[in-house]
């Protein structure tokens, strides 16, 4: 029901979204993870019809969200990152307001409050709700008109275990009823538990996809990166890697003990390290976030990362170029 084909979006001469193919079938819960900053904002603007694509297409049960805004609003339930509640209205009044907008009977509001476990909060002003209850109310609003497609941004954000359980049960029920659900959310235990498929993004492009149910072992268990040396294969612990880079068609892993060549491409290394805290600082550099010591801005568009290791016992600090877009994403990721 949700179909993305050869989708591209160029912003200020930079391709910030490039997705060859992404589909979510009826009854499926899928997630797109790893989008930050401009990439995340642009993707959401595209799938909600706020901006047209540069190339390719998005179809939501055949609807072009940019060209058919009214149909989009009728058929798609959207949960933004911010709850967007009317704080001076009560919980019930918030949903009744949207009932009027959709032309729905007002008793739908009470049905929805029961669905998200807020029936005893009906007369509480929204401004007095705890963060996790506010999130549940916002989700209830997205489901109010019983859409068959859902686009949910960080639905488990600020949720305590009780809210995670309610939201998980609700999403699974929606999928069983035939809804196609797309989560735009970072990997988490809650998201992984509910999703059929997760697509990992890097710099607005798919890195790889996986099905959590097919994971033989928990994804965060340690593993090794192979590097072929003369007559042997070295197995490198990801935590020991300061950064990886590509030079003259070869990929190298840099540790405090020096440079190690690997037969893998930089993209293949990135895919294997997707859940190990690595960040694409530049098209030719993949950096371990745990080893970043400083970010230096030389000019408006010129940035450099300083790492905390000493490459080959060198006196000079390790400096890694940081692209303008990556600098923006890093600020968003690390919240500074």
Report on the structure:
The radius of gyration is 22 Å and the shape is elongated. Helix 3 crosses helix 4. About 2% of the residues have low confidence. It folds into 2 domains: 213 residues, Rossmann fold, CATH 3.40.50.300; 110 residues, LytTr DNA-binding domain (OB fold (Dihydrolipoamide Acetyltransferase, E2P)), CATH 2.40.50. Strand 12 and strand 13 form a beta hairpin. Strands 5-6-7-3-8-9 form a 6-stranded mixed β-sheet, with helices on both faces. A 5-stranded antiparallel β-sheet has the order 14-13-12-16-15. It has 336 residues and is α+β, with helices and mostly antiparallel strands. Helices cover 27% and strands 34% of the residues. It has 9 helices and 19 strands. The longest helix has 16 residues.
Please indicate the percent range of residues in DSSP E strands (runs of 2 or more): 25-35%
Give the N-to-C terminal Cα separation.
38 Å
Rounded to the nearest angstrom, the radius of gyration is 22 Å
DSSP strand count: 19
State mean pLDDT (0 to 100 scale).
87
Q: In summary, what is this structure?
A:
By secondary structure, the protein is an alpha+beta fold.
List the helices and strands and how they pair.
Blueprint lengths: L1 E10 L2 E11 L4 E5 L3 H11 L7 E6 L8 H7 E4 L11 H12 L4 H9 L15 H12 L6 E5 L7 H16 L3 E5 L4 H6 L2 E6 L2 E6 L14 E5 L2 E5 L4 E7 L2 E6 L2 E5 L3 H7 L5 E5 L2 E4 L3 E8 L2 E6 L10 E5 L1 H11 L2
Parallel strand pairs: 3-7, 3-8, 5-6, 6-7
Antiparallel strand pairs: 1-2, 1-4, 8-9, 10-11, 12-13, 12-16, 13-14, 15-16, 17-18, 18-19
